[in-house]
Design goal:
By secondary structure, the chain is mostly beta strands. The chain has four helices and 15 strands.
């Protein structure tokens, strides 16, 4: 499958696999997390540090045009590093993010409460899709709109940037945006578009597959957020939070009628 982006000097040129399902003129939210994660990885990678938090602020629609990713370290301490990321199209900031990286160390014996590990079938035991235009694969553990929390296995199936390996950090960053459709959907489908996503990780995922489970939705007066737990085959690795607003265009599409433009 074609890579999602092709390098062209200092720019990343999106391919059709990076396009949003809502418009072929804008980059998918899935890849927005990848752009921020890729910038952090390119400029701040250090095996002694773990990406602890990554936030993506979707300040504008990201166009399907060549993009420049810039980073700036705002803190470079012995135990904590912080970096700001800006994604620009034609010198206009269309996406911004930030990350906090923490130095790995010996873990204390303290055991605060944590959710129990999920007990679900492995991805290979679940029938998968026959293929499609997206750069990732989804295996649904339970049906959309069911009464129980939504659960899925996901994996990236294409290179993010042509010629570069898909690192564990990138695999996690690419899946973070799925927090919105998984946690902010109801029996009638998805009515919300997310304005941001934040991912917390305690360790990098192992292997290709990342599991996600809805941890709940909260909303009032048209302002909402949803949360997820993130897993790999060995257990819980992180948490996702997505702020969201209702979007009539999405609601209209879910109902099968033309939406406002």
């Amino acid at each position: 499958m074609q890579a999602s982006f092709t390098p062209d000097g200092e720019l990343l040129v999106p391919s059709p696999t990076a396009a949003s399902p809502w418009s072929d003129e804008m980059v998918n939210g899935h890849h927005m997390g990848g752009l921020v994660g890729w910038g952090v990885q390119r400029d701040c990678a250090d095996p002694e540090f773990q990406l602890s938090r990554m936030t993506v602020d979707m300040v504008r629609a990201v166009p399907m045009r060549p993009l420049r990713v810039e980073t700036r370290r705002t803190r470079d301490g012995r135990r904590l590093r912080a970096v700001d990321v800006s994604v620009l199209a034609d010198d206009v900031e269309v996406l911004r993010g930030s990350a906090v990286l923490l130095r790995r160390s010996e873990h204390p014996e303290s055991e605060p409460w944590a959710p129990t590990a999920w007990d679900v079938p492995p991805p290979e035991a679940i029938e998968g899709p026959a293929g499609g235009p997206m750069s990732w694969e989804i295996r649904r553990i339970n049906p959309w709109g069911s009464a129980e929390p939504g659960r899925v296995w996901m994996r990236e199936t294409a290179e993010f940037v042509a010629g570069e390996p898909l690192t564990p950090l990138l695999r996690a960053a690419l899946m973070a945006d799925f927090t919105n459709p998984l946690s902010n959907s109801g029996p009638d489908g998805l009515a919300f578009i997310n304005t941001d996503v934040t991912m917390y990780l305690v360790r990098d995922p192992r292997g290709e597959w990342i599991g996600m489970e809805s941890a709940g939705h909260l909303g009032d007066g048209g302002v909402a957020f949803g949360t997820t737990w993130m897993y790999d085959r060995d257990g819980l690795i992180g948490h996702g939070v997505a702020g969201a607003l209702p979007d009539p265009r999405i609601q209209a599409r879910q109902a099968g009628r033309p939406g406002p433009r």
